[in-house]
Amino acid sequence: RKEVEQDPGPFNVPEGATVAFNCTYSNSASQSFFWYRQDCRKEPKLLMSVYSSGNEDGRFTAQLNRASQYISLLIRDSKLSDSATYLCVVNNGNDYKLSFGAGTTVTVRA
Amino acid sequence: EPEVTQTPSHQVTQMGQEVILRCVPISNHLYFYWYRQILGQKVEFLVSFYNNEISEKSEIFDDQFSVERPDGSNFTLKIRSTKLEDSAMYFCASSARGRLGYTFGSGTRLTVV
Considering CB atoms only, which of A43, A49, A96 is closest to B104? Predict the structure, then answer.
């Protein structure tokens, strides 16, 4: 089983729509969870950390379900600039390496 | 905003040649990393470096790979004898607090021909 699995998409949504997608992780000992954003051929950039109680950053909402070992990201009021690949990233707490999912591609159309 | 700088941005090399990829981490960061991303695939961990030694490495990081922090500011990845399958984007990253607060460099695209 892959360490971090994501629906690759693509999710094609109109501007202003809401889009949501999940990620599952296999290691129940995982401690830290993140969503990164990656534009084509660019470096990953931290979008937000994901906390146990769920958290929001502007139009972005992240949720963590430890029992089912999944993380979700919801984007409200999508903008054209939200078009990117969203990477689910997990750390198991015993070391400093990050484990990346393969990414979910979101395309927002005018 | 502080950034991680990588050079070169693109390197083409012949199979069997040695390459050195260079990185300048953020100055007050203590943890340094190399990751790679083969085109169309996920980002993969290669190695982490702390307190002047490797703290962890993946199965990918075999004897062909080495890292060095030669002068207190640069952090380099050397591939001794490149193979076609080493073609990828190589990202350097640094962090002040381990797994939190990573900053990635813009990457070096390595093409082995």
Answer: A43
What percentage of chain A reaches a pLDDT higher than 90? 81
Element (H, E) at B25: none
Supply the pLDDT for residue B99.
65
Beta-carbon separation of A43 and B56 below 8 A: no
Question: Do the chains contact at B91 and A102, CB–CB below 8 Å?
Answer: no
* From A87, A96, A100, residue closest to B99, measured CB to CB: A96
C-alpha to C-alpha distance for B91 and B5, rounded to whole angstroms = 10
What phi and psi values does residue A64 have, to the nearest 5 degrees? -125, 130
Whole-number average pLDDT of chain A: 94
**Long-range contacts of A80-85, Cβ-Cβ distance < 8 Å, separation of 24 or more:** A80/A15, A80/A108, A80/A109, A80/A110, A81/A108, A82/A106, A82/A108, A83/A107, A83/A108, A84/A37, A84/A38, A84/A39, A85/A37, A85/A38, A85/A39, A85/A40
> What span, in angstroms and rounded, lies between the C-alpha atoms of A74 and A19?
6
B100–A49: do the CB atoms touch at under 8 Å? Answer: yes
